[in-house]
Amino acid sequence: MNEKSIMRESNNFNIESRTYNGGIAAYLSLLDFDKNHFRCRACEILLENGQKVTILCDGRLNLFIVINNFLHFMTYVYNTHISSTGTQIGILWSNWPLALKNENRLRNEMIASLRKNKETDVMQDNAMELFLIPSIAVHKLIYAWLNDEGKGQQNHFESSVNKVIRKFQDGLDEGKGSAVLLRYIDARRTPTQREIDLLRELGKYYPVHCIFPISWRQNTMELLKKLCKDGTVQGTNKDILQLTLNSECRFLMAVIEEELAKNDAKTITDPLRDLISDILEKLESTLTDEDHLDSPDSAVPLPERPTDFFPNHPRIRERGIYLQDEKNAQAYNRRHSAKERCSFENFSYTEYLDNIELENYEHCKNEHSKSSKFSPGLFIVTCSHRKLIGISLMGCSEGPNTLFTILYERFTEKQLNNLHVIFDNACKTLPYCLAREPKLFSRVLMQVRTFSWL
Which residues contact 45 (CB under 8 A, 6 or more apart)? Predict the structure, then answer.
């Protein structure tokens, strides 16, 4: 069947009006794709050996040129009908699948009503023991304190660190945060520049695995244990430790080197020794038995979304409503009157709620265009070996929720534990994921593409 006959017989894609009536999986199935086109054997070997697998994620308005090795017909559509006009690859909202419209409306109504219905089950955080600091509020106070120190504003500096300690202690009283880190902060009220760099990392509201992605490096873990026990590391062991930490977390090695060089006994101080021991204990607490991890073989696949195409990653979970979603809705309702609020039918409702939460995270100027008629476009997931994993037709602008939903619903725990994600909005996506599934995402490494900062 040639390209024109496929387009004619499917009757799902109208090139002239850029509309798309059917599900993307159903449409692509007409092209009789081999699932192996969406499978990377190199990544499977890395995963089998417990090594990190890298995926690249991006939302695109003109996507098909990127994946033309697989979607030859889509390349034809791109080159013939889209490239010359620059029209975004979205579909008319009026043609969005009715089932997804209803699902979106019911979910938005549910979130908005949670504050009134306290009996509704809301998914709670389940791994606060993996966080070194107790809350976002402490994160902000730590950064304010370190900024005062960096600018030499000594008149504000002492009061800033006292605010950190008081707020941190309040969190400890609620069973959150690390008492060892609080003692380290108290012992470093006037930190050196290297200690400031370390404290900036420790002050992030991330699980310890995201700050120190070294739990899978057994040799490094053992050398750090030896350092804590003996108080020093020398010779070849020091060279090995430097080699690893300089690439994974230079900020820690820099402080270790500073203390070893500063002290006559060539040992690190007790506060740093205790801090590293606490970090190692938390890193090891989530090392799980591979035999107990979920997998597609043991999970019952859920019904596929008509806007997604992930042939080798079926849905094994369903994104629920989290406590943070409820908090966002409450904040949104406080800010806007009933007349000003977005309707529940609007797919941007979730985006508006998420933006309230994202205000608390890293400052980012990542913005995306919107259309009142068309959906935002496609979200593409590829691996580092240029193999396409899957694509999703986005209901709202590319953002943390898009990637979180894909990873949570389609990737097993074993895959997530060995996943390295490159995404231009990773700075906000990682804390977004951790606010909902901290245990599941505690070992996922997310980074921003270099040119996204330019």
Answer: none
